[in-house]
Amino acid sequence: MKHPFHQIHLYEIGSRLFCGKKGKPIPALFDEIEKKAPFVWADEIWLMGVWKNSPSSRKIAQTMPELQPDFHHVKSNLEPDDVYGSPYAIYDYVPDPLITETNDLTEIYEWFHSKNKKLILDFVPNHLAIDSPLVKTYPHLFLKAEESNDLKNTFLHPNGQMYFHGRDPYFDGWTDTIQWDFSNPEVEVFHVQILRHIAKQCDGVRCDMAMLPLPDVFEKTHGKRSVYNWQTVIQTIKTEFPEFKFYAEVYWGLEETLLSLGFDATYDKDLYDAMYHKELPKINEILKHPSKKNQIQFLENHDERRAKQSFGEQNKIYFSLLQANPNIILFHDGQELGYRKKIPVQMIRADEETPNLETLEFYQRVFSVVKKRGKTIHYEETNYSEFNQFPIFTRLIHSESQTELFLWNYQNTTVSGWIPYQEGIFYQKELKDLVSGNIFPQEKNKEGIYYQLKPNQLQWFIF
């Protein structure tokens, strides 16, 4: 049975690192962005880290002892100016001068639209930078600590008040941040104002740690009940900006909760973890029964280790599986080059890594094929036989211009058998596997196409 197939390709570019390495703002780098291999594949560009940097966050990052080893790991002869501060300790929701010389992102937004790309930006609902001018203007909107006997995860603000740092319930606070007080209903109103401002400059937001304002989570973390209502926030913004998107970074099994409150999509950490731990039957189970809800699936992002480091050559297999699944695929800048070093988000300069050309060639093959998919796409499972009755993962993706055949062995033994000729699958003199780049000469056989797959091997053919 055929099912509608829809994917969104979300391409994350760390804007501070990109601009810091080049020494130029984004508008001066449009040509370089367009030349990046994933750009042709991408539907949406997530420019991570565009908002104004916090001087206090920069000073903390430059001097915090536990951060220094990671900085030195990716930058020889580390200089203080190589460390800029966390993009998630936002000073204010205005563009950082590293990103653009203008006071808004209109020029950047319009350029991406001219290339038929949507622009996604950050919204950090849980906290701001400790030195944000908004704390001075609205001191009552942040979580005060004067009633607490435990002064851990607190700091004295220059206004004379003790405040809590932003944090989640399982770890100590982020010391460059101040916690919004979600027990105060005015915070929700103020966030709507911030989001209205953001929505005029982009097509959606990726909401950092979006579960932290939830009533149960906030109470577990801070002992106070949150009155913050994501549903009201999202509906209010979508009333004015109907096409505006809300993507949630979320963990702890709270994905369904946020989707029910109006988020357009949520992180799918379960699939990532199954791939990381090589739980092949679990991967198959997830892919065989695609969720009807939008999930953001990935092999890496700025929080995770590089895909090449985590998965080695299997990153090709797992990315191919993502391309066979109806979903939102999050792709991280540099993933296509096979980079292995995870660069801390506080940095704006790092040593250049040598690209892995074999990895780049794989991604270029994939981007080219996926770009040829038409607007009307369907998927279905394909008929197959396996000599020892082992099940395998099979999928056909039909579009106007091509049919794609995916074969993946999730068993712990070699499998082999036949794929019969059927709709979209026909005899060709040779078949090229997108994953390995290998070409297989074919002999016409009434049984169809012969396959043989080692454990965790995937082949991807185009007809």
TrEMBL record:
The lineage of its organism: Bacteria, Pseudomonadati, Spirochaetota, Spirochaetia, Leptospirales. It comes from Leptospira kemamanensis. InterPro entries: GH. This is Alpha-amylase.
